[in-house]
Structure formats: structure tokens, C-alpha cells
What does this fold into?
Amino acid sequence: MNLMGLQGGQYRPLSPEQVETVHEASLKILGKTGITYELGLEDTVQMLEDGGAVIDRDRRIIIFPREMIIEQVAKAPEKVVLCGQDPKNDLHLTQNRVHLGTGGAAIKILDPETGDVRSTTLKDLYDVSRLVDQLDNIHFLVRPCIPTDIDEEDYDINMFYTCLAASSKHVMSGVNDEKGLHNVIEMASLIAGGLDKLQERPFISVITSFAISPLKLCTQSTHIMQEANRNRIPVALSCAPMAGSTSPLTMAGTLAQIHAEQLAGITICQLTRAGAPLLYGGIPGMANLKTMGYSGGAVECGMMNAAIHQLSNHIKIPNYNSSGLTDSKVPDAQAGYEKAFTALLASMGGSNYIHHSAGMLESMLTIAHEQFVIDDEIIGNCCKVLKGIDCDAEHLALEVIDSVGPGGNFMTAPHTMTHMRTEYYNGNGVTDRKSRDKWEQDGSLDIRQRALKIAKKLLAGPKPSYISEEVDKAIREKFNIVL
Amino acid sequence: MNDFNEIKDTLVNLDEQRLLQLVKNALENGIPAGDILNKGLIAGMDIVGEKMENEDMFIPEVLMAAQIMGKGVEILKPLLGAEETSSRGSVLIGTVKGDLHDIGKNLVAMMMESAGLVVHNLGVDIAPEEFVRMIKEKNANILCLSALLTTTMPMMKQTIDAVVESGLRDQVKIMVGGAPVTQAFADDIGADAFASDAGSAAKGAKALIN
It folds into this structure.
């Protein structure tokens, strides 16, 4: 059942008037409070000034006139296609078309053999990417974990290489610096058969956390973002404040601040290169007020991630955000409901690229093989909801009702046979609906154990590399590939 | 040998037209009807039963397979010897008194027939005395009792007790089933077997005879 890219929008937490109100509030923030910047961004600031911004270099504040924002934001493309090495995995990000996938930078994993917590390795990255490649409801691969066992300077090229070798789905990741970005673009160009081919069908993209909330430009990330713009590589403008800590405690205030940060970021990108493909990347989140740490699984996160899409949709730009997170340390019932709530709300909200939704635990710190399998099922269910209920003649089945007749049964009606594999969600097998006796016969396995079994089976299969031998050789000659 | 694999696969794939053609072809090629029945059709339904247990096939597909198989048997019937048609076992099946549910029971009956057993489906709301009478009349060696209501489960015990009282207990193997029924309950009331779905019921019945 292909459930990728269906139109969401059934859940709209903000009314049209509220969307307008927040949008205006964001323009006000940019026109009055402004954005500050770290040292080293003089070129960017000059570019903004040339574009109409008012700069106070003593206080390091950038004020954006409303006309400037409106003009620049209009140049950003309404549709961004993120490709897979295999075209069947292409993502058409636009309107309310919904896609969900993995998130990045976990540093711990629940060992699939022992269940113990340990640091993530390059092999973990490879295994998990292979797993994701085979789970149909995980639509893209944002680098799921950091290979803590290799040198930091080798991170960028090896993370991308490993993901591209293991999966033909779209690969996205952050990079450490501009050099890292150039190396990755070079490697991807080798795979694509030229930079122009890569730009035409970008099967890689980058995340830049250009904004340090509240309202500050990060030098390194902004530079990387602009370099991606110049090279026509799609970039997600990530900003992820925690309500109560780096944005106002209230949801509306957080949305307004994020939207302002996004408008500023998009303006920078479009001035750098008009028409640069980008994803509006506001991710509303919350601080856990008891610890001030990130809280990913709260139901309000799902609500806000639906609302933020209403704001990106208002300016007609496809968005990247997060949902499907949990604060649970293990794949238990809490993980189940936190992920299901937040993923469903964000999906029904119509968000285009919902990352962090597969494989993660403990907010974003930990991954587990079995969690990818469970999340594949959760995501599948969320997307199925977007399909809605068909009420055409075929589905109303009046003829069938008449021919089966009162007191009859529908079990062998041709109509039943025709629709039975498409009308209701059919998952990856992890959901158990057997009788208790059969369930006991099969070992009384709970979902975590069943999911682990499925993951093991998927990993035991053949290991194709999506990178051809010839290209692989060329890559290894140029770069220090550890895998 | 090849023919049987093709027949089995075609049945599992629910291709009615092709299956009936293969059966006719096999007869024309001089393959004994009994072999086609046992090694082709019944063997194919055994695979369907397994897939049903593993939840690889949906119930409507299983029913369709049973129907297609039935049509195949119709072609073979006139050519089957007396021994081949009858004595795999004579099964009585019914829903106990007070209970009107029959869909599951009918599914079991269909799967057992497809497995080569002769099945007498008595219907629903059958009193213990009626079961006893029919055991004698049909010379049954397997008695299958079904109940869907927790309130009618005790009637299963009453039915078994009636069989014991009538002196026929040694003649029949008794199997019970239905959503609320469990192995533990089956043991409690003195049944010989319990099955949780139609596929394993058919398998279990064959095992009871052998």
C-alpha cells in the first residue's frame, strides 16, 4: 500500500484569522525587535543591507522592512522535489502533501542483541539505514545517528556515503562546515554522473541550524546554508526553540517567533540566490520545565507542528519539521502513545517533511532497531487516515447489498475480494491480533520482541550497495571512506 | 509430479478457470482421480490452511479456495472409487443449544471437507440429545462443538456428558472451538481436542483419526 505524499490538512489548529494574526506578528517582530548575528557574518549582513534591511552595527541588530520580506519570500519555490537514487522514492514537497522519515544525530542505541544502551557506531548507521531502506512507510533517510567511533573530521563524508550505500531513499544530513559540504557535493556528483545531474535530481540535501533561537544568526550554519543556496542543493532552514526557554512559553508566541526566524532565513537564501530550493524548517518544541531539557513527546508538540505548517503554507513554501518523538527510554506504551499522537497530528496538519518520526527514543538521543519497525507501522496508520473514506457507488456497494440479500453474508462476495487488500491498512506484520491461545503458542511475544524479530529478518537479507563498483572506487580514491 | 505442484499453486492463487482446466488435463493424461484429489486438491488446501493459520491469507480468500476446490472435486467425483470418497472420517459439527452463531462453524466445516473428511453440518442451536442421535445415525467418529457465547459454553459440557451417558464416548473424538473457548476449558470439560481456527481444526481432525 503506497501511502506516501497524500494530502493532509484535515486538522487545522489555527483558524484562517489566527494564521493571519501570527503572520502579522512575525512581520512585526522583524520590523521592530529584529534579528541579531554572531561575529563573522559581515558579508551576509551587507547583502541584507543592500537588499533593504536596516542594520545597527553597534547593537548588531538587523531590522527587516515588511516589503523586503514579502518580495524575497515570494521567490522561494512552491514545490521542492527531493529525489531518491531510485525515482520511486522521490518526494514531491508542496501544498499539504505529507511525508515522514527518520531524524538525525542520535548518539546512543539500544543494542539489538542485549538491549543495553551504548554509543552509536558507523556499523549501526549502516545497519539502520539498510533497515529503513526496506520499511515502506519511512519515506526518507535523515542520517539517524552519529558514528562516534570514527574521527570527527571524517563525519560528513562518511555519514552521507554510508546512507547512500545502504539506501536508495533521499538522504539528508547536517554538515560540520563548508568544506564538508563541498566534499559531500563532490561525492554525490560522482554518484550522479556530474554536478548538473545532481542539481537536476538532488538525492542529497542538507540541514542547517542557521538560527540560534531566539532571533540570532549562527555564523557557521548561515555560511553553509548560503553555500548550499549557491550550489542549488536543497537546504532545510532548521530552527528549533524550546518554549519557555528559547522562545515564549506560550504556543502562539513560539509560533510567531519561529515564523519570524524563518522569514528572515528565507530572505537571506533568496538574496543569496533567487529561486534557491529550500524547506521552511521551523520546529516548535517545548522545554521540560522540570529539567529544562527538550521534551519531544508532548501532545502540544504535535499540535504546534501542525500549526507551523499552516504558517509555511500561508507563504506557500514546503516545510520540514518534527513529530513522532517520545521521551520514553524504551519502546513501551508511552513511546506508543506519544509517537502516535504527535505523528498523527502533524500528518493530519499537512506537514510536508516530518522528520524524527522513525526510530528514536529519549527525545532524540537514542535509537533502536525495533523502534524503526514499530514507527513504520505508526506512520503507515497516520498516512492511511489521510486517505479518508470513499463514498462512490463502488464503495457504497448497493448492488452487493442487494445480491447478498438480508440474512446473507459478504465473506465470498467478489466485492469483498476486490477491496480487501486496499480498503483497510495492512502493515508490516508487527501488529498482533491473534487469539490469546495462538499468541501464547507463538511465544507470548510483546511488540518490542516481535519488532526485533522483524528487524533481524530484514537485516539478514542481501546487502546491495546502491553505489556502483566503479563509482565506489573513484570515491575511495578521493576521500577517506571508513565503511 | 509436476502436475500436482501446478495444481497446488493454482489453487493457492485462486485461479478457478486454470485449476479446473488442470484437473481435466490431468484426467486426460491418465492420472488417477484419487491421486489428483489427494496429492493435488487436498494437498493444496493443506497449504491454504497453513497460510490461514499464519495469517498470510485472508479468510475470504480461504473460502474462495474451498469453493474452487469443491468445483474441482465435482469433476473428479464420478471417477472416484468408493473407498476414496468416504472413509477419511465422518464428522458431525454443530453449534450447541442456545447459540445461533454459525459463520465460524461453517468455515470449519468447509475446511474439513476440503481436507477430505465427510462432514455433516447439523446447524445451530442443537440439543445434546440431537447430537447423540446423529452420532448413531451418521456413524460419526469425530464430534465438533462450537459456541460463541460465554453463556453457552457450559452447554458444551452438558453435550459431552450426554455423549458419555449414551455410551458412545469411546466411538467419537470430541473437538471444541469458538472465540471464548480455550485449551484450558477444553481440558476441563473432557474434550479430546481444541482448535482456535478453521485451518488448525481441519489439521487436528485428521490427526485425531490417524
